[in-house]
Amino acid sequence: MTTLNRKIRAHIEQRILSGEWPPGHRIPFEHELMAEFACSRMTVNKAIAALVDVGLIVRRRRGGSFVAEPRVHAPVLAVPDIRAEVEARGRKYGLQLLSRQRRRANPQRAYEGQLADGGELLALECLHMADDRPFGLEERLISLAVAPAAADADFSAIPPGTWLLDAVPWTEAEHRIAAINADDRIAGLLDVPLHIACLAVERRTWRGDADVTHVRQIFPGTDFDLIARFTPKS
Question: Which of these, 142, 133, 144, lies nearest to 160 by C-alpha position?
Fold first, then answer.
């Protein structure tokens, strides 16, 4: 059951992330939200405090609360929705969930501890398909501390990236891109020749200061490219 402060938070968050309320926009005063949602000041304050904590809102003394400036000023790449990418090419999308495990962070991997933040991780491996052919291999970790609903999501039916874009909108992302040669396992899963050139994209996303997910996606180099369009910085 959704609590009222979560409903208020979602109401404000949706307007910010959709662009309806741009950076610098003053959100309604607390008394205005109290009247709109017929609730107490404490309930409204709790919703706003949560949005401050994730970096979507800044409070100004005697001025009210405003949409924060984005922390990423010039991203080179967007966070893609692979299903949408495949369908945009006029191809039929498919998904194979290869493995799913709920576990604690590996103490030998510092980034897993940061992602778990004291909770558990959901480890997923899946194969994205296009016209019944392998399109990309995905290995993903999701923080259940940040996205607890992921524990019950059906990732055999909906791609993890698509689910996260809808359920836990990101505010900052980091990409690392490399060329690799397919080893025996990758070549077998992607149905490509051994040692063929592949594109490996590693990505981390945050919501405010909270680490949401780490993902590694591998695509055959002959079937996938990355395009970034930008202008010189003035």
Answer: 142
